[in-house]
Amino acid sequence: MAVDQDRERPSAAAVASSTSARPERAVLVGVDFRTRALNRAGAAAARLAAEQGAPAPSEQSAAPVPVAGPGMDADESLAEFRELVLSAGGEVAAELMQRRPKPDPATLVGAGKVEEISGVVASTEADLVLFDHDLSPTQLRNLESALPCRVLDRTQLILDIFARHARTREGQLQVELAQLEYMLPRLTGRGKAMSQLGGGIGTRGPGETQLETDRRRIQRRIDQLKRDLDSVRRVRRQQRQRREAVPVPTVALVGYTNAGKSTLFNRITGAQVLQSARMFATLDPKLRAIELPSRRKVLLSDTVGFIRNLPHTLVTSFRATLEEVAQAEVLLHVRDASSTYGDEQKAQVEKVLGELEALSKPRIEVLNKIDLLDATQRATLLERSGTGEQVEGAVALSARTGEGTEALFAAIDAALHTDPIVDAELRVPQHEGSVLAAIDAGMVVHSRTYEGNLVHLSVSGPASLIGRLRDYRLRAK
Predict the structure, then answer these.
(1) DSSP codes of every residue in 404-447
(2) Which residue has the higher pLDDT, 408 or 52?
(3) 0.85 exceeded by pTM
């Protein structure tokens, strides 16, 4: 493309270059626009003090008033942002926090804070400034003009991490589409080549600006990527139809990034997919067959993790991948039981599930990482459980140690409605070896007795399998 590659393509705006001698150093800027609530609370306290004849509290002596409502505070958000930077291979040079009643329309944080950031960049020799907030095209342009290094916002950082971790052709297409859709409205006034293009003899005139050329090329590429992803979606639909010909239900793992989904996937299936403490280590969906205690077969799907303020372009671009979530019969919502802001993470996951129209699906909450809890925290979490594993519709477990996975299997079995488990009495001639082998492989045999050449079996198993053996069935319990 004719765009300046170092500054225009988010994929090139990597937080750490693989060819670099050292990780790129970043200054992190957190923002908190909720202080207006604090100011109102302080004013209310002053009015109350005046009515009671007491001295009004000074700004210096007034205790901070907590802001009501759910959600992580600005400091917790910055801590999560720090983990994103480390996942991208960056190095944190400094952290700054800006608290103000509302965003500055020109620079988000105000002119004074921009000067402070510039000084910190110079003193730490930082390579880039990262904002834990989305920047408008105008804000991004103004900040890049005022600061002596590159500027990225939260969405650009997440897109960069996705670009690093995409391994399959499908994942790379989805990430590129999200990058281009994010970049398209941010071309105005940026880049070094924005001059008019000459028309030639007989065609002199204003010509076409470089900006218009870039937009046209990007739009063509976006259209091509959408066609390619439509092809991927068709292939997935065909694969799903072939799977649906055999009644094997799908169970999908969903949850906040770094909640331990891939570790749990490996624990349950015995697979060796990448499991990492870094955020967004899994981008490409994985499918594996597992067998439940009822001997019923299901497909388990590992999916990309969600995060607070997940860019909408990513949700749209990854819709082909996330179709596994939409088509699953049961969702396993994996949560980090050791997280201090688990309720906020849960709300963010449910927000994305709502965008995928999957909120109405049966969900099992899986409280993972109980091995990281101390004895008191663990007792508090499990106090409502007789076995220490089942917690009011949720399952507490440790994917790392395997504790609690049996309770999870039982919960999945109970939640599935496709191909339900039924009980039956069968009478099978002993010479029907293939039928007896199918029973042993696909059903739970409660009792087996022999009478002459016949084998009497009391079994429970999938209705589809028992239906195929109706010639040997005596009666249903």
Answers:
(1) THHHHHHHHHHH--SS-EEEEEEEEETT-HHHHHHHHHHSEEEE
(2) 408
(3) no
